[in-house]
């Protein structure tokens, strides 16, 4: 995903303007409800994902979530916290949590921007690529626990199984 170099002058521009240009250039369906929020949906290998961005100019921060198209049934919500803790131990950037409102596991990250002149398109691409890669990597753990009935320890082990060779 690339777009021509976007240049702004003055204080750091609203990064959502850059994201909107990226989504438009790539013909991704998005919705920008106001100047400080934008939502885009994309498909992954396991499910669809909803990425939500909020710009807080007063905090000089870009807040970002990537939600699974997966709902945790009420009977599994107690064990989900154990699985989330195990997953978060394996991550370098961002973290997963559970959204009570939607019942979905959600990847979250916030990028501080104070002192920057602009966020580069590449930084925003990396932020989304990392989120989607982590969601894809751990989606099987959620499925293994929820639908196969295994313990969180077994679910995380199965998700992190490294295959050797080719089939």
The order of strands across the largest sheet is 1-2-3-4-6-5
Instruction: Outline the low-pLDDT stretches.
Output: 6-10
- On the 0 to 100 scale, the average pLDDT is 84
Q: Tell me the series of helices and strands, N- to C-terminal.
A: HEEEEHEEHH
Q: If helices are DSSP runs of H or I spanning 4 or more residues, what is the number of helices?
A: 4
CATH architecture assignment: 2-Layer Sandwich
Could you describe the 3D structure shown?
It is a single chain. The protein is of the alpha+beta class. It contains four helices and six strands; from the N terminus they run αββββαββαα. It has one domain (15-137): Yope Regulator, Chain: A (2-Layer Sandwich), CATH 3.30.1460.70. It has helices at residues 15-25, 77-89, 121-146, 152-159, and strands at residues 30-34, 37-43, 48-56, 61-68, 95-99, 104-112. It has a six-stranded antiparallel beta sheet with strand order 1-2-3-4-6-5. The longest helix has 26 residues, at 121-146. The protein starts with 14 loop residues before the first helix and ends in an 8-residue tail after the last helix.
Write the SSE topology.
Elements: H1 15-25, E1 30-34, E2 37-43, E3 48-56, E4 61-68, H2 77-89, E5 95-99, E6 104-112, H3 121-146, H4 152-159
Antiparallel strand pairs: 1-2, 2-3, 3-4, 4-6, 5-6
Helix pairs in contact: 2-4, 3-4
């Amino acid at each position: 995903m690339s777009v021509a170099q976007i240049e702004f002058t003055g204080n750091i521009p609203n990064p959502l303007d850059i994201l909107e240009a990226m989504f438009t250039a790539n013909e991704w369906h998005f919705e920008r409800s106001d100047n400080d929020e934008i939502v885009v949906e994309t498909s992954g290998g396991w499910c669809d994902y909803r990425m939500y961005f909020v710009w807080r100019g007063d905090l000089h921060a870009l807040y970002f979530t990537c939600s699974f198209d997966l709902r945790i049934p009420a009977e599994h919500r107690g064990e989900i916290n154990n699985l989330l803790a195990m997953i978060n131990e394996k991550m370098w950037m961002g973290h997963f949590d559970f959204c009570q409102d939607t019942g979905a596991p959600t990847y979250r990250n916030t990028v501080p921007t104070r002192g920057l002149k602009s966020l580069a398109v590449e930084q925003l691409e990396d932020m989304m690529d990392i989120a989607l890669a982590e969601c894809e990597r751990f989606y099987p753990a959620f499925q293994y626990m929820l639908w196969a009935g295994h313990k969180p320890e077994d679910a995380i082990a199965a998700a992190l199984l490294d295959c050797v060779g080719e089939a």
